[in-house]
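Hi W.,

Here's what went into the run:
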Amino acid sequence: MTQQQPTILRMQGITKSFQGVRALDDVTLEVGAGTIHAICGENGAGKSTLMNVLSGVHPYGTYEGKIVFEGQAVTFKDIKESVAAGIAIIHQELTTIPELSITENIFIGNEITKFGLINWDLAKKRTTDLLSQVGLTMDPGTPIKYLGAGQQQLVEIAKALSKDVRLLILDEPTSSLNETESNNLLGIIKELKGRGITAIMISHKLNEIAMIADAVTVIRDGRVIETYPVTAGQVDENRIIRSMVGRTIENRYPLHESHPGEVIFEVADWCVEDPNVAGRMVCKHSNFYVRAGEIVGFAGLMGAGRTELMRSIFGHSYGIWRSGSVKLKGTQQKITSVDAAIRQGLAYLPEDRKVYGINLLDKISTTIVSANLKAILQHGLISLDAQQRVAEDYHEALNIKMANVNYGVTTLSGGNQQKVVLAKWLFTNPDTLILDEPTRGIDVGAKYEIYKLIHALADEGKAIILVSSELVELLGMADRIYTLFEGRITGMLKCDEANQEKLMRMMTSKTEAEPGSTTRETLHEIP
Amino acid sequence: MKYLKQIFSGDIRQYTMVIALVVFILVFHIASGGKVITPSNFQNLISGYFYVLLMALGMLMVIVIGQIDLSVGSVAAFTGMFLAITARDLGFPWWLAILASLIVGVAIGSLQGFWLSKLNVPGFITTLGGMMIFRGATIWISGSKSVPVPEELKIFGAGYLPDWGRELTGLNNLTLLLGIIGIAIYAFIQLRRRSRSAEVTGVKEGLWLVVLRIVLVGAVIGFLAYTFASGRKGTSFPVPGVTLIILIVFYQILTQRTRFGRSVYAVGGNKNAARLSGVNVPKTYFLTMLNMSVLATLAGIMFVGRTTAAGPADGNMWELDVIASVFIGGAAVSGGIGTVPSTMVGGMVMVVLSNGLQLLGVGADRTAVIKGCVLLIAVAFDILNKQQGRPSITGRLFPKKENPEEKAMEGP
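Here's what came out:
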């Protein structure tokens, strides 16, 4: 592995503190020239900080230790200097500007000028060339907004290439991409490696590391736990996970035996129209049910309408309701507002935590009580004591790692923020919990804890609806799985008869039953 | 400074602004040759500028939901003028005129709330329209002339508490009593909070800290009460000041301890999350805008009471002082942040500036220049101050990339 190759980057003894708390503790990282080096670690382990130190976001002098790049000790004061030295960082969130063309995006801040004017012809020519290097064949004049997330990611790489980059840092590059896009991107990174460009890739996805990395470094709590080579596409997943979380996870999904009871949640003939496109139905005659104590998964590709279905059921908070009914514990209920949904014992944990789940300006304690303030009213006023007590209770019950319940929610890591949102919904004392991508963007250890919580809730007799784009997660957690395709429920499988291939086929099948046909009836059949 | 923070922990976030306020008062006092800290000037300060603080209470909530109300000056002028005209031309008794004026205020507020909550027209636009409409309407219905208001209104705008027992103390005893009640309530709340927090969190604050705090705050309240009480015969803490204190307490409770208050912050912080937590976003918008117009109406009524006539140019540029107060008090333009006590400190800064510069004989032109500069410096300083690790307004408005390592370090 790296021993044979000359070292392109050596970060030695990097220590970085934020107000006395060590985020990085004597980290040493060596990256061989022309390799792909993966960095793994739980959220909050220090990966991003390390990369920020490297790229000059944290300027020289604010950390201890030294960085040697291409044999030279470097002291970057800002990102510009690291870019000039040949290091480019591609962030998880896209930094492209939607309204500008590909060319404009690539050369923004770095325009090719002639007599003080931008030479667009040359810029376009070079863009075409750069695009071909990342496997894109498009008109360089295309506005970025017409490109998919994966393509935009590639444009960002092309932009880095335009600046003669020799070390490319990718921070979870595939987190917002689908499988095809991911594979394509990973292929491009591998190709670039063939042309001598070194890459550091932060990733949670062990299969990606197996596919392309030459070496992997695991960071935990600001320290390097271990670095070892990836040979012939083989990684010991358990070993990585063990290093990441500092404990052995025998199984990524805790063992659990469900004891489903009565059907307590039932949706029939649910139809919802797109609020933006008149006439377009986002939910088409959906029927499903959930029993008490049962975990029911919902699988579907992007755009299948999973979130739309759930949110429309949750107090009509999405779209225009056209038809359908909801039965709770056998009684039909009209639930036309979120408030009513909460009162009827429904809870919905939304998918994108930062956009829909949490007020980032809020405190932990006030977030937890925010969906059920009625419960802590005393003489018509909010009781701050009760609020404190409730927050402390959930702090303990859900094992939320925090310094103080009255700190801001942004002081928490992603996994703990998610637990706070979960606590907020548990405090409404729901019978049915809809969990929309509850583990997205959180690390392995926190995922495991969330899974255990879900099991505990099912054991309490709550009906759980689990929406996830990770089939493995659904197979590991759910008792039954419904599949959605283009707004329709296309099938239902019991966990023991389901596998990834079967589910994927149902998630992509265009053949589905017409309303009223027998297949749909059997789907809805309640034994 | 650190010591000071410990004493006032959790009470006043805007230490720097409080210090700036004290410095302003002292500097003006010295520069004017001792004209600022006097009973009559303190009384003028309240009855001359109460409207800034009063409307800042409503503006705070408007800004927290992420909106702005530019129409408050015009609305105050219009409702004041409406009152004067109904009393003069329709012969309404004073109380009926006040009632009519308040009803008009509610109607105006409902209209502004309607544009925002039902039609999604941004508050900036609806109230810019309102600002022009009600300024024009004020001039229109008044024929550009001042209209006298009933004598009875004077008590609301410039009245004093009754004097009794002055022979004994040489002071307005009711004002002193208010001061003593204030100190007692503060002491009670502090002590109760101490024992309550010990019950809930198990952490007991040092008794000396609490006592020191009570002594310090008590001294300030006592000094103010004494100053207000020691004016010439027939004066006291002004009636608009009493109204203001009642409203401050009311809005502090409303924003911090009610479901509506929580929904205001929730909507301002993250509208989507608020909606999915069962908050009725349009209703919150509607009520907040409505409340603002009602407070503007109240300010207008009290103001014409003080000036004894409603003028077509009343309330000109009030909105600017009011909005500046809220931002000096540390609120965020994009919403979600701001508290009543901080806003009141911000408002006091504006009021003391206006009053102090006036005492120094500085004209309105240069006063505006200075107030503008203070707004810019105060907000910039506030942002810099908060960037140094403590809950940063900017940091929260523009959260950086997923970087929990760094965020984890930010404690309030």
